[in-house]
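Researcher: For the record, we're logging two predictions in this thread. I'll number them. Prediction 1 follows.
Model: Prediction 1, sequence and structure:
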Amino acid sequence: MIPNIFYVIGCSIFATALTTLAEWYLIYRTEEYKELKQELDDEEKQLEKEKKKKTKKSGEKVKQLEKQIQDHKTKISLMSFKSMIFGGVVMFAMFSYLSRTFDGIIVGKLPFEPFGFVTSFTHRGLPGTNYTDCAFLFVYILSTMSIRTNVQKYFGWQPANSANPFAMPEMPAEESSTN
């Protein structure tokens, strides 16, 4: 059982490394990306300065800068489209391979019985009703998510805060100064 779980984690590491290498090759090493990223950073700094001012002219400038920032983020997202497709193909191919290899094989044992829909991930393709048995899918999903996130943090390739649905909203300057 132990070697199977390490094999699944190893396959996840391999697939993540392959997709990360593709992202670097297709996106992050290009001059176009570097220029867009630099312009975006400069405009975000400029936006922060303009938000601190309270004039009518600065309000118009803020709207203009926000539009430019959104345009740059859109361009960066479009640049990453090729690598996202490649990453999806690699992850799907790895999933298919692992699915054939570990069909009906227990790769781990959970110390708890999962609830509701989580059971469909943890027990997928396994015979029986012992829901503490763990299939490859659960291990693959968890390891891929954690490895990919940590690699992106390490290289500084995290998506912008606006792309994060769980990011804390920014408070306007008027509200934050009253505290």
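Researcher: Logged. Prediction 2.
Model: Prediction 2, sequence and structure:
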Amino acid sequence: MCILDNCNTEDAEDCVANKLADFVKEGRPIVIYGAGDYCKLTISYFEELEIPIDFIVDLDARLWGGKQTGIIITSPETLRDTNAVTVIAVSHYISMPKVKSAIDCLLLDLGISDYMFVWDLFRFRYRYSVIDEKSFYQNRIEEMVSALGLLADEESVNTVLEIIRMRCSRDRYRLPYLPVSEQYFPIDFCKYYSDEVYVDCGGYLLENVFSLLSHCKGFAYVCVFEPDPIMYDRCQCMIERMQIPPYKEKIDLYNKAVSKEPGRLQFQQDGIAGSSRLSKDGMIEVEVIALDDLEIPYVPTIIKMDIEGEELNALHGAKKLIENHRPILAICIYHKLQDLYEIPLWIHSQCTDYALYVRKYGMNPSELVLYAIPPNRQIGGTLIVEPHSIDH
């Protein structure tokens, strides 16, 4: 059962700390599932609670035998017959049902009955944050007001204000959120066609490519960038298994990161949590491309970016493409505090006639997307699936 099932919001931290302390007294190991960024946050948090962590498990065999913050990483199979209490430190456990289902089934198979998702605890109080969010935004009121003034509807403004309130008060998100299945392809203010050319920066498991196919009833071409070697291999497998031959051949997959300038940079790998990113502390090196240097057979009509804080740099690297071809932009703005104002302000500085919308998806506090829609694609509530006249 979930450790938090019988905990009230007001005393969640104390409740979990007491339960975990009891498990430790019983001699049961405390284990973290997932060796990525959430793992680091969990270790730091549990040190504060004085709860020892016995070991970490991860699906990536290349990590086995290594350590995260001094704690050994091993195979999930190690959990079998241990009666361990498992802390799931995987960022997409809630927001991606397929990921949640896969982890739940694996833990069930391994005989794990007591578990918790780490964000269920973090969401009550952002103890992991090293920045005072309230002071951060208070010192940037002018920039925030300017960014809010660019947004096209009341829902966008209210969403951003609620995100700021949540971050500053360390309380939960209170506004309605949209289903993750609708993410990146809103139909209430943007029209789509059946021959879109889609550039996906941060391919992860290709779920957004399948969403594009569902929403637009087809596409002309898809270009996917996934720098994480593990996720790149999984994307390749998913393309090979596609049961829709006409579209299988229309997808190009690149094991590259996207940023401001081409080159090679260090990359921090996190093959399951979906939070791998460019980082000077990364243990592997990856090739980096700027979208202005992209050589594909078609002109992009939609660009999506979910690249763990590299979005603004990648937009700079796509400046000419955006100015010349004016694609729809779907850009994540939750990885850095300043994304809320820096990214909309930059897009407006390049394309003053774009309409800007912000929407929140899923249960966790992330998945915040800024949409920038050129005038010829702005519409309300209509889905157009016929081919359009854009010159590919």
